Predict the 3D structure of the following.
Amino acid sequence: MFKEKYKHMIDQVHPGDELLCGVLKSAHISSKRKISFFYRPVAAVIAVCICMSLTVPALAAKVEPIYKLIYTVSPGIAQLFAPVQKSDEDNGIKMEVLSAYIHGNVAEIYITMQDLSKDRIDDTTDLFDSYSINRPFDSSASCQFVNYDEKTKTATFLISITEWKNKKIAGDKITFSVKKFLSHKKNYSDVRIPIDLSSVTAAEDTKNVNAMGGGGKDYERYTNKGKATVLKPSEAIYGSPVDDIGVTDIGYIGGMLHIQMGLGDRLKKDNHGSFYLKDVNGNTVNCNCNIYFANKYEEQGRIDYCEYVFDIPREEIKNYTLYGDFNTSDMLTWGNWRVTFPLEQAE
Amino acid sequence: MLKSQSLLKDDCADNVIKFYADMVYRLAFARTGTKSDADEVFQEVFMRYIKKQPVFENEEHRKAWLIRVTINCSIKLWNSAWKRKTEPLTETIPFETKDDINLNNELRQLPKKYREVIHLFYYEDMSLAEISQALNRKNSAVRTQLTRARALLKNMLKEDFDV
């Protein structure tokens, strides 16, 4: 009795659309800035103005644009960043390590990428998984896009390195290198896929594949020792919401609706997306799990797939429409940028 | 390449957030009792997720991590000096029925540590062992909290609900 009543009550509790969109947006830009920052824009602007007015004038003559940027994001730590200013240039693009802040076993480093001749750097520039950090200690690292300056065609990134064994890392040297980057990325949200779901039938052909990953509450139910049964990918595309991404098969397996997304050039361009359903009232229904696999590895003609599994009975599927969010990239730029610099503790 | 049994990196963060949004928000609401606090905790939990990009052995591991971080963020929020000095906002969820409103009001009378156990047991259908693992508490402590929470609920709700 209590359980049903409690469930009825708590089922009405949801995060607001604005709140959810804000968090999803942060996931896209992977910003370190707290979301609450944009929830209190007036307070934030006032705080930044106060901090700028108190601290910037004294430094104004020497302050680089990046310091102004750090001040706007985190005034409290801006002065702790020590200048590095070492750069490398290749293919008409300059990479510069601007400044670093070492505290304990963590190093935070700002770098910029500037296109000196063309328009290959933009506000969607993504170092992808093509950057590498050589350091003489075991560590984990991440690289986040921070800002883009249109006038100078410069993108700024923040690299965070954490040593695993909790030792201080000041005094070591690291080499940061980049071999390629993506730019001119496009983000498509809430795209309706024109497929008549009422005509979906039981899958005619299935395939046992090696799952490369995935997730969702039923992921483990659908995989056994890394194997999963999925729809056999068709060569035909049932619906292609954006270039390089399409629906490659759709059907029921064991009473569950499977919708398969084919992703061309995924490794080169990081094309990715997600499918979800909407009912007649516009409510979103997410998949119970998704499973990643590919037709081949490290070879020409590789196509990546992501199969989405929904728990919607066949007799009810006519009440749903397929939607998706997608991300693609138009430009992949190659080069060889490499900077070695010491990790010095800020004074 | 994606690591096995894990939703990793940017392309999957969306899926994870969408999938666990309700779970995190409802637990935050159950623990804090107000919409504004739940909003704050919700943001903090997923900001930590985005920033840390933790790798999990399986979905149960991910779920347990999100539950633990939600509770930790709720406690941290409540313990903050700012929070102690401010009046709670009256903004709340527009529940459908009077029973829902009354039940919510009664639950807010419970100690916070009991509310989270009640929520995980009755709503997330988690066993005592799962709750103790997720909250990093002893099994016996969780059992005691649940027993006391039920007793308080019975006393508060009287004949209205069979707890």
Observations:
- Helices of chain A lie at 2-10, 17-29, 36-39, 41-59, 65-73, 75-78, 219-222, 266-269.
- The CA atoms of residues 301 and 310 of chain A lie 29 Å apart.
- The two ends of chain A are 63 Å apart (CA to CA).
